[in-house]
User: Fold Polysaccharide deacetylase family protein from Arthrobacter burdickii.
Amino acid sequence: MATPPVFMYHSISPSSLPDPHRLRVHPDRLDRHLRLLRRFGYRGVSLSELLRAQERGEARGLVGLTFDDGYTDYLEHALPALRRYGMTSTLYAVAGRLGGSNEWDDGPRLGLMDRDQLRAVAAAGQEVGSHTMTHPHLAGTGADFLMAEIGGSREVLQDVLQEEIASFCYPYGEFDDDAAAAVRAAGYDHGCVIGDYEPADRFTLPRCYISPRDTSAHLIARMMRHSVRLRLH
Ligand SMILES: [Zn+2]
Assistant:
């Protein structure tokens, strides 16, 4: 399936704490990325909006925007930028860590949105998707574990938001056939990975990682690389 480019961000913050996993993009840089997309006639949208548009044959001029892990800085720094440019995104929350921190990671502790903050994200017209219960490595695990992490997190988020959760994102981008099958079985509409443009289907949608140093020129280069690779198929 030829999906338009989908960009993957994590934390959006002006913080100067160490960033060993290169997860932080400065708010000014995000603003420049979105401004550039608009100047080139592109609009950033959530993954569900992107796939619906694609099904209608109307995805031209759209790119997907995703923010992993559900950091509280999304509310302070990403949402205002998205609003400035009239764009939407999918935010992937770790459903068993709401109101907690990124304890799966050995870098600096970053706050994760709580239930009320997630509701505020949805009320602002943004999509909330699932990023499992605890942010584990899913590949090679058993059926019960997959269902608890993948299906369980969908139930938690649906309870918080009182709406269908359609979008799933594999932690670390890691998946195998069993994990992708569990995402489908849990009732999600689609799932996304990191990089790797093939073999892509609805449950392994590719995404472009955006690094802290990516300039607007890098963004354009990544979009061009994406479309060239799709044409080679
Ligand atoms: Zn993550």
